Amino acid sequence: MGSRKRNSANMVKELKKNIASASLNNCPTSPRKMRLVADQIRGKKVNNALSILKFSPKHASSRLEKLLLSAISNWQQKNPDTDIENENVIISEIRVDSAGMLKRLRPAPQGRAHRIRKRSNHVTMILDNLKEINN
Q: Could you read off the pLDDT of 1-52 as tens digits, one per residue?
């Protein structure tokens, strides 16, 4: 590896030091329904986002709550000496991408068939410190 590439890699590694992420792949929920819940917690503090997800009636909120707890656990492993309640940790980025579809056929009148598409999605959540974003 060349010195310029090594220096660049070290800079990226240093920037990602306090960033923790978690991902949920092939979640059997429509991406549109998942984005409705993801938009509610984007940019919020972690404690506030947990309470929003806990009391949300949407089915997707329980899956995002588990993902957020996983991201918090990943953040605590990267920063073992700090407490998450004292830090200003926010959900800096949450992406909901479309995944594969299960295609099914449903019988329709007069011998026809309608296609049913059962959608799924990938969710990526990134936690970061509020202080570092503002600088």
A: 689 999 999 998 888 777 889 999 999 999 999 999 999 999 999 999 999 9
Distance of CA 124 to the CA centre of its chain: 3
Question: Given this structure, which CATH class describes domain 19-134?
Answer: alpha beta
Amino acid identity of 130? L
Rounded to an integer, what distance in angstroms lies between the CA atom of residue 67 and that of residue 58?
A: 15
Please state whether beta strands 102-107 and 113-118 pair in parallel, antiparallel, or not at all (unpaired). antiparallel
Pairing mode of beta strands 113-118, 121-129 = unpaired
E strand or H helix that includes residue 102: strand 102-107
Decide: helix, strand or coil at residue 126: strand
Domain ranges of the chain: 19-134
